[in-house]
Amino acid sequence: MRHPFLLLAATALAACGAAPPARQPTSVATQAIVRIDPVRPVAELRPLALAAVPPAESGEFRASDLVELVALDPTLRLDIRYAGTNNFLGTPLYDQARAFLQRPAAEALARVQRSLAREGLGLLVHDGYRPWYVTKMFWDATPPAQHRFVADPATGSRHNRGCAVDLTLVDLGTGRELEMPSAYDEFSERAYPRYTGGSAVARANRDLLRRHMETEGFAVYEFEWWHFDYRDWRSYAIQNVRFEDIPPRP
């Protein structure tokens, strides 16, 4: 996880009689790996997180039905950053490069993908369901001054419930990412959905993604343009199952 929003750049230009800005592939700047200096090495934090117990929750929850995204819609593209070193901690956090969501959220995401395809665009997914122990590693590794960019394991993340997804847009013709105001997982104001800097093209791309996601019941997180929560996230409990232990579902 990572405030009124701007008029879309395309709308503003249209009001002046100009055409919307052309979509552009990602610039070198927004492709840069953004990293932090962890408070403690991840290698030390992993066994502690695996041995920890998620917070107890009260109330009634829906049965978990985590669906693998590419099994539901093979046209979805993945770039699971936490399965490699291209992430803010610079080390693998997941054992497998896979993405899951609770079925209603996964089906809504597939509808977004179909809608975008009519505009020659598609989704590139960086993260979906996240086991709770990984959220604990994020929190324990991140300096307190930057904790607003990561979820508190004491309350859990919407990723832990299988109802949050991190993603961006790609051009279906070239396969390249569209320019956005910040890099993924960038710990700065450029990541905010209401950020007014950067290029008009990047802001228009960001807001286009948001419009499509909101149409299908997702809401953007106030500190991260790439993070979207599905509307039913409160209906699911925190999960701590590893990817390899999630049973395949049709």
What would the principal axes of the Cα set say about the shape? globular
**Main β-sheet, in a few words?**
5 strands, mixed
Strand content: 5-15%
Structural class: alpha+beta
Mean pLDDT: 88
The total of beta strands comes to 7
Total helix count? 7
Question: Over the alpha carbons, how many angstroms does the gyration radius reach?
Answer: 18 Å
CATH topology: Muramoyl-pentapeptide Carboxypeptidase, domain 2
Terminal CA distance: 29 Å
Residues in helices, as a percent range = 25-40%
The CATH architecture comes to 2-Layer Sandwich
Keywords:
250 residues; alpha+beta; Muramoyl-pentapeptide Carboxypeptidase, domain 2; 5-stranded mixed sheet; two-stranded antiparallel sheet; 26% helix; 14% strand; globular; disordered N terminus
Description of the molecule:
The protein has 250 residues and is an alpha+beta fold. It has a single domain (9-52, 66-245), classed as Muramoyl-pentapeptide Carboxypeptidase, domain 2 (2-Layer Sandwich), CATH 3.30.1380. 26% of the residues lie in helices and 14% in strands. β6 and β7 form a beta hairpin. The chain is globular and about 45 Å long. The chain starts with 8 loop residues before the first helix and ends in a 20-residue tail after the last strand.
